[in-house]
Specification:
504 residues, five-stranded parallel β-sheet, 15% strand, Rossmann fold, Heat Shock Protein 90, alpha/beta, six-stranded mixed β-sheet, 19 helices, 18 strands
Length: 504
């Protein structure tokens, strides 16, 4: 961003040292120099212009006026007015924010016109007093930090609790808020009714500040969250080998609300890892098992989305290799946690507490710090190596693959279904065909496959199978009917038989 221009009242003999020290401090401090550029009249090069024109023009150009009032009034012009008072009057007339610092507690020794100027300023704003140069620097620093907080350029609390700049309530999806209420009521006994006004829901969740949506509100319910928080996305990539290399066989960037990001990221991984589909010897529904427990994949991805640093320009990255899954996020551990403590019982210290609360209410996460422990336990029970956690330029969770794990889980007679393309049939379509039995609703098929994102399922599984003539609707004239079901076509049944035969 362009630094804010800070006009420091023009040359006064008694403040030569203080002005120079203040200038050097503002230009040397990492925070101050990022946001402010001080202007001193004595730094202006020689020019064929009157001095009063220059300093008054600079006041008009500045973003803030910093006035230093001492004992001296200053050199008076033909009207008996000093440059300091002219500058103050100009800043007042142009409604510039004014920061006034008065030297000394006793105004008795001050020039009568300076006393009058101080009284005028006292009646118009809050001014601060200082005795030494160090006190002046400390006071100016505190005032400028408050300016940055008020302008929401820096924050003192969590990122997700800060107001999302330029966003309004119109940028939030009321439909998504209402859907959230329904899910939260069923999942955690959320106290608000389904027909509660969306604004009341946001207020209940502490997602508004002075009627404006916070970053958490936009992340959770924004129509286009990436319009305001551009890096709030999940990048998914599939590599055939064990290292990052080009060309990348499968690469997708997912955008949307945090719920969508998690679901799409998980569904991407499940569509690419191996799946075993058992026989229907004991049930009409064939048992299925992925090589990695979907719950572990979900936990790794939801943790990355929930606890990442949203001030970073980096995005969550989900990278599937031949031997492992890596989930990276631009974040780090809170001071109270270490990598070793992650493997032990520990408290929950969310980086984005408001986002985490809504994810908890919809059962995406727990609030007890049990996520990493559950990942370790599930991997052990599935016969997989324990997850690995590391800190590099971000936080990385690594899950080791075991392609045959799914077949062991469902027993003998299991059919392997990889995530690769076989002929013109994708792995996703093969999976759908393998679990089809009779007439099934979309939600039934999704549930068996462990997929949660409807748009992803439709785009990667359902629509390609329909377009290929492998499945068909039971009510083709009403594709959006709530009674709609799907079944194999003769072509789909023949292909399924061929696929099963080829796997034996």
């Amino acid at each position: 961003m362009i630094p804010l221009r800070l006009f420091m009242s023009s040359v006064q003999r008694e403040f030569v040292a203080e002005r120079a020290a203040l200038r050097d401090y503002l230009r040397g401090d990492a925070l101050m120099r990022r946001f402010f550029e001080p202007f001193l009249f004595e730094e202006v090069p020689a020019a064929d212009r009157r001095a009063d024109e220059v300093y008054l023009d600079e006041v008009a150009r500045c973003d803030f006026y910093l006035g230093l009032f001492g004992n001296e009034y200053g050199l008076e012009d033909a009207q008996g007015v000093s440059p300091t008072e002219r500058e103050y009057a100009q800043a007042s007339r142009l409604h510039k924010p004014r920061l006034i610092f008065v030297k000394g507690e006793d105004d008795g020794p001050k020039h009568p016109k300076m006393q009058a100027l101080i009284r005028r300023a006292t009646g118009e704003l809050v001014r601060r007093r200082f005795a030494t140069g160090a006190e002046l620097i400390a006071g100016v620093y505190a005032s400028l930090v408050q300016v940055l907080v008020d302008r929401e350029l820096i924050r003192s609390g969590p990122f997700d609790a800060a107001v999302c700049r330029d966003a309004s309530l119109d940028d939030l999806s009321t439909e998504s808020i209402r859907r959230f209420v329904g899910i939260a009521r069923r999942s955690r006994g959320f106290p608000l009714a389904d027909d509660t006004d969306p604004v009341e829901v946001l207020e209940h969740l502490n997602l508004l500040r002075d009627g404006r949506p916070t970053n958490a509100a936009v992340l959770l319910f924004g129509r286009q969250p990436q319009r305001f928080l551009i890096s709030s996305e999940v990048k998914c990539a599939r590599f055939y080998g064990t290292a990052v290399s080009k060309p990348i066989p499968f690469y997708q960037v997912y955008k949307g609300m945090v719920f969508d990001l998690v679901d799409q990221g998980v569904d991407f991984v499940l569509s690419k890892i191996n799946l075993a589909v058992g026989t229907r010897a004991e049930s009409t529904q064939a048992p299925v098992a992925y090589e990695m427990p979907p719950e572990v994949v979900r936990e790794a991805i939801v943790n990355a989305v929930a606890h990442r640093d949203y001030t970073s320009n980096g995005s969550v990255q989900v990278m599937l290799f031949a031997d492992r899954l890596e989930v990276w996020n631009p974040g780090t551990l809170p001071p109270s946690l270490t990598l070793e403590r992650l493997r032990q019982p520990h408290g929950s210290v969310p980086a984005n507490p408001l986002v985490a609360e809504s994810l908890y209410l919809t059962k995406y996460i727990e609030r007890m710090g049990t996520g990493t422990g559950d990942m370790i336990d599930r991997c052990r029970r599935a016969g997989l190596a324990e997850p690995e956690f590391s800190l590099t330029d971000g936080f990385v969770a690594t899950l080791r693959r075991k392609p045959d794990a799914g077949f062991i889980a469902v027993g003998g007679g299991a059919t392997p279904v990889t995530g690769e393309v076989t002929g013109e049939v994708t792995g996703e379509v093969r999976r759908l065909l393998q679990v089809m039995h009779g007439e099934m609703k979309r939600t039934e098929i999704q549930g068996i496959l462990g997929l949660r994102h409807e748009d992803y399922f439709r785009g990667a599984y359902l629509v390609p199978a329909l377009d290929a003539g492998l499945i068909e609707m039971t009510i083709p004239g009403k594709p959006n009917s709530r009674l709609q079901k799907y079944r194999l076509t003769p072509k789909g049944a023949a292909l399924l038989a061929a696929l099963r035969g080829a796997s034996k």
